Amino acid sequence: DAAKTAKDAADVAQAAEKAAEDSAAAAASAIDSMNMSVVVGTLAGDDTVMIVMRDTNAAAAFCSEIKNLLN
Fold it and tell me: Is the pLDDT assigned to residue 18 strictly greater than 60?
């Protein structure tokens, strides 16, 4: 559902804010190297990573996985 996906994305974004400066490129590169079929690609700044997913279901599942890893 769209509300849950938005909340999950916000939670991941909040965690990303805590990432060390200059670590985003390494994180994006690691995600790209996984060759996940649900990930279209990544874009990294200094401390932020944008992950483009194939669809909203894939995005919601990925957000859930990231939240579980961070908890």
Answer: no
